[in-house]
Amino acid sequence: xxxxxxxxxxxxxxxxxxxxxxxxxxxxxxxxxxxxxxxxxxxxxxxxxxxxxxxxxxxxxxxxxxxxxxxxxxxxxxxxxxxxxxxxxxxxxxxxxxxxxxxxxxxxxxxxxxxxxxxxxxxxxxxxxxxxxxxxxxxxxxxxxxxxxxxxxxxxxxxxxxxxxxxxxxxxxxxxxxxxxxxxxxxxxxxxxxxxxxxxxxxxxxxxxxxxxxxxxxxxxxxxxxxxxxxxxxxxxxxxxxxxxxxxxxxxxxxxxxxxxxxxxxxxxxxxxxxxxxxxxxxxxxxxxxxxxxxxxxxxxxxxxxxxxxxxxxxxxxxxxxxxxxxxxxxxxxxxxxxxxxxxxxxxxxxxxxxxxxxxx
Length: 361
Hints:
- This protein has helices at 95-99, 110-143, 160-164, 181-195, 211-218, 221-228, 235-240; strands at residues 14-15, 37-40, 46-52, 76-82, 85-94, 147-149, 156-159, 170-174, 204-209, 252-254, 257-259, 261-264, 267-271, 276-277, 283-284, 291-297, 303-307, 324-327, 335-348, 356-360.
- It is α+β, with helices and mostly antiparallel strands.
- Strands 1, 2, 5, 17, 18 and 19 form a six-stranded mixed beta sheet that branches. Strands 8-20-16-9-13-12 form a six-stranded mixed beta sheet. A two-stranded antiparallel sheet has the order 3-4.
- It is globular and about 85 Å long.
């Protein structure tokens, strides 16, 4: 990460949030993908305006000279209020963290001293930022399923199904049968189109699945047959077919890990590249075995994150930001502390577009 000079300040709390800008990312496949529209607000809570609109209907034709017009039902609007979740991390830079870096502190000029302190701070912030990134990515990943969950125990923090009084759609796809998978995928697409009432039409559908589901999909006889026609007079399709060139199960490396993807009839199935770990060090599967869920792309404002200000007098009336990082004054002439915090809510305006999928393997 970038190195920012730091002073040993004996009196002031210093905002060092900019130090995170160039930190190398470890988690964030979806948090840093642009899927969520992020916004800081000045209030202590968050919300959005919901339009209860019926499905769009056609009207009848009229005469050009006729003065009457068909009235369009634009629905009713109300404000939906949401709670927020707060995450706060701390670490400290001790006497030893600085003294072990220099032979004689007294011989250093002010610039060298600031650089030395900055190096110690940067090392501490790397660990803090990776923890916060995992917290935020987990919040995003669960909010993509309609419910932002607590990183500690998985409890619901912002349940959009409960807030909006809706229930989550569910579908089961049987991969043990030799046929019917393509039909089920088409039914899934049609159901999402029928369900959507918010925003513009989506540009893409992604289904995030567990590894065992992906393995079963790529070996399913109906899907293999779909690509066998590429062998008849269409050389490039043969070359590019992942089934026929033997790369169907290849892992694709991206910034956040290895991902397997498989496009089927306009729907992209993909695995999630990382494992979450709770505070006890236990692995939390992003997607349980035999499961998956839908994500739609291209609907502006469907996925949102709103951040409220950190609770300090100097921030009253300011817009919240995704991360705050603080360096305290020197304490007891032995150390100073670092704090990182984030306060906000991640949510879907129309959570029913996240379908709960179960695959029979």
